[in-house]
């Protein structure tokens, strides 16, 4: 069957038609949805938590950091849970909420920024996989040797073929890899519990005796810079919400995935502080979980963790390939993205979106071989762009509460405001200068938006949107010039 353009109406918005029922019966169930959430959040970051946390903080600050993160991310997870139920006609999560709350151009920029960040991040996952494999085959180096690029390219197109065979099949494989990646982490936690010593954990509990850690506030901020990234992907179930068998499962999967990851992350970082001292952890090379387990059980522990890292990152690679292709695919159906992104095959897979996404990943894999610093600069900028849709998601939830469209106005308003404030904090913690440099990525999207609006015979810009577009262009040109002169540097 040749590729076809999907209808402009998302499956969940079709209502109770036979076609909608057919799609729903074949949709993703709660296990697969939860695996997408967990699979997209758990990548390589969890395996570096002990060193990353201990490098700038003592146990007390790390405990406080996880508490703040737990509250902020729980609010964001609640936003996605509640919106998935109260606004079942809105699919693809962050982009749809930004559009519904703040207009089509803001919605487009959420979709555009999310998509760019997702596929650029996939290049990083491919590099990390083969960097970890260099533990067993040194020729892979840091993941950007020609051997590593060839291996990563093969992995990329295997994932591509898997998703083309059907999103449900890909989601099933993702479920298996998610279980496989969690198992070694649980094993590490079990060994760490038996090796845990209270006297090690409480040694310099506040960090006052350790030179260079700074005040408690400084330490807490350093932990937030680490926890900033490990929860990216919490919106995974919302992104593929159009493919859910039961709409209510989207919210349950989001909350369930958040709880699973929070428990695993907190235990990995805190238990390690009772196995090795803070200075010892800070001095470990990453993945530092390997060093901690090697300290407990011997050399085989390091080998096990490196294998687990490969499985974990490969699973995240698969999850994020699905998410990256889904955003332009769904957003093309309402004129936010050009129509050509909306092609699907007989299996319901987003063919054109997938080919474009993975073609860009392949291109940048080659760039890492010849100009790795160029890719690293792009990755540093793009990684911040994915945080912006979180702010609009929280803002939309708060806006609905103020309009009186929420079930529980005071509670929904509180959740929306906390999620929005936390989203703003994430951008601030990442660095406002990075947000400025993001304009370099957003400005070219204006042409894509213009094409999409013309295809739908819709007005391109309202006055306020035209002003935002002009500011993006000016900021993009200014940021590019400042980067060229060395005044700002994303790698610094």
Q: What report would you give on this structure?
A:
The protein has 492 residues and is an all-alpha fold. The protein has one domain: Amino acid/polyamine transporter I. Helix content is 72%, strand content 1%. It has helices at 18-25, 30-41, 49-54, 59-86, 94-102, 104-133, 146-164, 167-195, 198-202, 216-230, 236-239, 248-272, 278-282, 288-297, 299-331, 351-370, 372-385, 388-402, 409-430, 432-437, 439-442, 445-455, 463-485, and strands at 4-5, 343-344. Strands 1-2 form a two-stranded antiparallel ribbon. The model is unreliable at 1-25 (pLDDT under 50).
Overall radius of gyration? 22 Å
Count of DSSP H/I helices = 23
**How many DSSP-defined strands?**
2
Order of helices and strands: EHHHHHHHHHHHHHHHEHHHHHHHH
- The rounded distance between the terminal residues' Cα atoms is 50 Å
Q: What is the CATH third-level topology name?
A: Amino acid/polyamine transporter I
Strand order of the largest sheet: 1-2
Mean pLDDT: 84
